[in-house]
From TrEMBL:
The keyword GTP-binding does not apply. Residues 175-184 have a biased composition (Acidic residues). This is Copper(I)-binding protein. It comes from Corynebacterium freneyi. Residues 192-216 have a biased composition (Basic and acidic residues). Keywords: Signal. Pfam families: PCuAC.
């Protein structure tokens, strides 16, 4: 009988230990599941957020400039992932000094000018902002924007949404647009006569104060 009781005690003890171990394993598994579930949710949210973005700004950058150049450009490809045309109503670059002016520019016959309204990104299409073509302008700024620096660009869209993105300052590839201090546009703005076109021609009185348009 004594042996029987001892055996029962050992069996009971083993069962209790097994339950305790099972309980610990369950807790650990729950913790692991919670951690994994959280990570999975975050990843899923991130993927969903990226996939559902109305507009993306790809291969985007800010052209570098020294402090003595008052202007520079922002280039890249705006992609519209919706079924309706969207317009860039306004934009800004955070972190630049107060008084910096932000304008949207177009190019026609080699001449650049400020547009009324903003650049339109066609439904399920794209709008390319390129050197010597349509682009975003940073103006009246006497800060050096050096290669490798990062700035936050905020685009306000016609559907009420905003696109906030970190852009790097880069050196523009050789052979792309180059501007002299006198406001002349080289390469893409070359006229049929082989002479550079002045970017301020035909821009109107409102741009007289921006004779440095060559700075971007």
């Amino acid at each position: 009988m004594k042996l029987h009781r001892t055996t029962k005690a050992l069996v009971a003890g083993s069962a209790a230990l097994a339950l305790a171990l099972a309980g610990c394993s369950s807790d650990d598994a729950a913790d692991t599941t919670a951690a994994d579930g959280s990570a999975t949710t975050t990843a899923a949210d991130g993927t969903e957020s990226e996939a559902s973005a109305a507009v993306t700004f790809e291969d985007a950058y800010i052209k570098e400039k020294p402090a003595d150049k008052g202007m520079t450009g922002i280039f890249g490809t705006l992609k519209n992932n919706t079924d309706e045309d969207l317009e860039v109503v306004d934009f800004r670059v955070e972190g630049l000094k107060e008084g910096t002016v932000f304008e949207q520019h177009a190019t026609e016959d080699g001449k650049m000018f400020k547009i009324e309204g903003g650049h339109t990104i066609p439904a399920n299409g794209e709008k390319v902002l390129a050197p010597g073509d349509d682009h975003l302008m940073i103006m009246d700024n006497d800060e050096a924007l050096e290669p490798g620096q990062m700035y936050t660009v905020v685009l306000e869209l016609s559907d009420g949404s905003t696109l906030t993105q970190e852009l790097e300052v880069r050196v523009q590839a050789a052979g792309e647009e180059d501007y002299g201090e006198d406001g002349e546009l080289g390469n893409p703005g070359m006229g049929e006569d082989g002479h550079m076109r002045n970017m301020n021609d035909g821009m109107g009185d409102e741009h007289d104060e921006h004779d440095e348009h060559a700075g971007h």
